Amino acid sequence: MTPETTQWVRFAEEDLQGAREMAARVPPLRNLACFHCQQSAEKYLKALQQELGLVVPRTHDLESLLDLLVPHDATLAPLRRGLQSLTGYAVQFRYPGARATTRRMQAALRHAERVRRELRARLGLPP
What we know:
Blueprint: H1 3-24, H2 30-51, H3 62-69, H4 80-87, H5 102-122
């Protein structure tokens, strides 16, 4: 892996660890957990883009990041549904008004964990 890819992976791991810790608190910090799930998925997608030598865009839209990867690896396409739900967490729960439920938080964690597993496999990293 390139040094830049390694940095993306490290940041993705930190975000996912933060999400896990926020979810485990009593009471859980659901908004923060959802935000960090989105951030982890975003950084894993960008890590693979970096490794493939693609331009890494400045966007939080996970579907558009996936669209850049699918031509290089069509087996990533099934991640789309989970990424759709995670994309909104980049902003949705960062401002007053919306609150994440425990169910949404748990789903966000599952989606982020799946992205992690799939992208680490493509980067040649252990699960």
